[in-house]
Amino acid sequence: MTGMNENPLDLLPEVLLAASAVLGLLLGAWLPRRRQWLVGALAGAACAGGLVAAAIAATTPVETAFGGAFALDTLSATSRIVILGATLLVLALAAPRLYADPRETEFHVLLQLSSVGALTLAGAQDLLLLAAGYLLASVPAYALAGFRKDGPGTEAALKFYVLGAFLGVLMLTGITVLLAAGRTTAYPVLRTELAGAPTGLVAAGTLALLTGVLFKAGAVPAHFWVPDAVQGSSEPVAAFLTTIPKIGALVAFYRLAVVPLADADLPWAGLVAVLSVASMTLGNLAAFFQQDVTRLLAYSTISQVGYLLLPVAVAGRTDLDQEALLYYLAGYALTNLGAFAVVCALPGARTVDDYRGLARTRPALLAALVVCLLGLVGTPPTAVFLGKLEAFSAAFDGGYAWLAVVAAVNTVASLFYYLRWIAPAFLASGPAGGPGAMSRSAAVIAYGAATGSVVLGLLGGSVLDVLGGPPAP
To answer: Does 236 share its domain with 212?
Structure first.
């Protein structure tokens, strides 16, 4: 192959995180148990360094690296910033719980490796690299889901692994079929080749490929693992699983739509619209009467994926698609992590009724919870409000007005189960001792995430201006 750019600095954020994981694993083998927090500190430093490198790289012209396999454009730059920032928040949420734990090092290493997989998914411009990103994002996540080694954790990890392995094989089968149809795995060449390939072959390969992407996104029909995996995992892991892999998967889905599938003779836009409606509707209906707060958030994240699929459904049909997706992803990451931070701050409050009396005992924490939950609904001035507004506008502009109407109806319906959680907190009476002891570090993260969601919403116009731009060639 000629003309291949193999400069590792092009992938500096990914390299920093991967190197930190390897070095942390080596350090953990020698450090005493009460010194293993240094591995977490190293991971945090790698994320911070990666954020700086990603911000600098975002100012450079659009290009590709490693023979065109990895894209360096606005999609990858924004994904890097959101994923690394979200990983840093999850590390901070997990640190107090893991201090002096015998497997503290392993947790930090697994978390970093899975985040590298999400970064790879977001930047992949080749089907083989997409498959590598899928595996790297998935395998460490299976171990994280069962990290507690208790009954619910083991069940969560088993269900997560079985479905992920099956759909991963199906995804690899789809890549093989598309390779046979297009005679290449590079996105730009596939765009030309698939346009003239047999429609049935392209359709079969595309459907098989998308099952893996939908699994990582937690969208219908590959969503079955989400409620049990989230409920059975520890709260920091649940926050990770419902946020970071989804960012990489949805950006990968969008990139597939605008490059290799753009000229294929397939009704993929209609298919994505149907998946969007199914995800938001099923997630909302299933969340209505949930009592466990982590399970409620699990179904909430399925519904949020439905809204996030709106810009993907109209990819290439409007100028609003890319900026709507990226801004919504950033707002969702902050808001969802803020909600999970409140759950982490009150480890003794497992059900909706356990939050009774929170307005009296923890008013600041309740304020953060209200901002995050109403933010997930799409209440101004939070970032998700503007993200949904942009997504609805993109759907209208792309000729899918009916999809925007269905999404608006689902948004109103979702208010019910978020209010079911908030309402008991304002009741004067509650369980003895209130919702229980509070983790101050997690509470600080909840305050920061809620504030960040509002600030991002208020600065939305300026942020949206920098999220446009063409994908890598």
So the answer is: yes
Same domain membership, residue 236 and residue 326: no
Give residue 274's identity as a one-letter amino acid code: V
Tokens describing residue 345: 């701050």
- The residue out of 265, 296, 324 marking a domain boundary is 265
* pLDDT at residue number 469: 76
Q: What letter does residue 60 receive in the DSSP assignment?
A: S
Return contacts of 32-39, CB within 8 angstroms, 24+ apart.
33/100, 33/101, 33/102, 33/104, 34/99, 34/100, 36/100, 36/101, 36/104, 36/105, 37/95, 37/98, 37/99, 37/104, 39/104, 39/105, 39/108, 39/109
Predicted confidence band at 457 (pLDDT cuts at 50, 70, 90)?
very high
Q: What is the pLDDT of residues 234-259, one digit of tens each?
A: 999 999 999 999 999 999 999 999 99
Which residue reads 């002891």 in tokens? 437
Looking at 61-150, list the stretches that DSSP marks H as alpha helix, in order from N- to C-terminal side: 74-98, 104-123, 127-145
DSSP codes, 291-325: -BHHHHHHHHHHHHHHHHHHHHHTTTT-TTHHHHH
The domain in which residue 369 lies consists of 267-473
Last residue of a domain, one of 247, 265, 283: 265
Judgement on whether residues 221 and 114 belong to the same structural domain of the protein: yes
Q: Note the pTM of the prediction, 2 decimals.
A: 0.95
Burial class (CB in 10 A: 0-12, 13-18, 19+), 11: buried
> In terms of domains, do 306 and 164 share one?
no
Q: What residue type is 50 in one-letter code?
A: G
Residues 236 and 261 in one domain: yes
Place of tokens 């992949």: 124
Same domain? For 456 and 410 the reply is yes
C-alpha 422/C-alpha 352 separation (Å) is 8
User: What is the phi/psi pair of residue 389, to 5°?
Assistant: -60, -40
DSSP state of 397: H
- φ, ψ for residue 63, nearest 5 deg: -160, -175
Indicate the number of domains in the chain. Answer: 2
- Per this entry, what is the length of the chain? 473
| Look-up of token digits 């911000």 | 55
Q: What is the pLDDT of residues 27-50, one digit of tens each?
A: 988 888 888 899 999 999 999 999
**Owner of token pair 């894209």:** 71
Residues 298 and 247 in one domain: no
Q: For 322-340, give one letter per residue: b (16+ CB within 10 A) or e.
A: bbbbbbbbbbbbbbbbbbb
Q: Are residues 291 and 217 in the same domain?
A: no
